[in-house]
Amino acid sequence: MRVSATLPDFPWDLLEPAKAVAAGHPDGIVDLSIGTPVDPVPAVVREALCAAADAPGYPLTAGTPAVRSAIRRWVARACGATFDDIGVLPTIGSKELVGGLPAQLGLGAGDVVVIPPVCYPTYEVGARLTGAKVMRADSLVSLGPATNIKLIWVNSPANPSGRVLPPAHLRKVVDWARERGAVVASDECYLTLGWEVEPTSILSPSVNGGSLDGLLAVHSLSKRSNLAGYRAGFVAGDPALVGELLAVRKHAGMIVPQPVQAAMVAALDDETSATEQRTRYAARRGVLREALEKAGFAISHSEAGLYLWASRDEDCWSTVEHLAQLGILVAPGTFYGPTGERHVRVALTATDERIAAAAERLASAA
Ligand SMILES: Cc1ncc(COP(=O)(O)O)c(C=O)c1O
Known about the structure:
Layout: H1 16-23, E1 30-31, H2 43-51, H3 65-79, E2 87-91, H4 95-104, E3 112-115, H5 122-130, E4 133-136, E5 149-155, H6 167-180, E6 183-187, H7 205-208, E7 215-220, E8 233-237, H8 239-252, H9 258-269, H10 271-294, E9 298-300, E10 307-311, H11 316-325, E11 328-329, E12 331-332, E13 344-347, H12 352-365
Parallel strand pairs: 1-11, 3-4, 3-5, 5-6, 6-7
Antiparallel strand pairs: 2-8, 7-8, 9-10, 10-13, 12-13
Helix pairs in contact: 1-11, 2-9, 3-9, 4-5, 10-12
Protein name: Aminotransferase
Cofactor: pyridoxal 5'-phosphate
Organism: Asanoa ishikariensis
């Protein structure tokens, strides 16, 4: 039995030839492909991790009381979620939850998972691991009479497009899902990175009408607090659903390490370093956006999040090749879905020096 055979090709392997070309640039590669943070972990978070380093016993899957209340405080502040009974659960980064959610909710063959037309590939992987069918759709109308829809993923601000769904759109998804008994999982890991619009959480009463029924919000500290290496995320929402996830995850040993739980408390309570990081990304975004536009790229959406969704109105692999010749590596849009074929995703996660180098190279080629 080869489970991997049921999964899509691992896309990053396909980028290796372009990476080799970009790495040949005399001033080195500017890697804007994978959105991996490059700035330091905030000192207050490192100190909290170290202070909790003596952790000989098993941690709680549910999280310490301290991390549970830090999550509650944060979702009240950042998402407008002022529900006394909100379910919260720390996760080992958010990717494992995205990949495991359909299984942990008990989905299987015959069930349908709805995902956006271009999106983070792990939504599809999680569904395929259970044998569930995937439908890519932006508008629920386009789903037709499909039954057996058990889970709907939304991602606003979106990876890769940076699109933000307005509250009215989210509200429609919630109403539609509730009528059919489907769960809405809202991946909000870029929620705090709104540039031209203020993204709204599914946990906001303006979207959910004051009820958490059937709703899960997935959050990550990877980008907000540069904690990708710690693996720190959480899920919050419908207490019954979160309780079920806890029950399953306790059995499966899906536990966030104790020192990471302590680091999460420090990170969630620290808005200062999150604002500093946001400011860095805003500056990089400004430089890259201008350079790309002057070099003839059109930028679509990208009103929020960690990427510029850029197009030269040609096949995305031609754009990847063109930029690799300049020593700049980006991700082709088809990694995220067939309709991404004329775009590339340009990440803002490189040092100021590398972003400046990219801008210079684009200017010299324009
Ligand atoms: C949309 C989206 N969801 C989830 C993740 C996973 O993030 P992490 O596992 O670091 O929390 C990413 C990572 O890039 C992402 O882009």
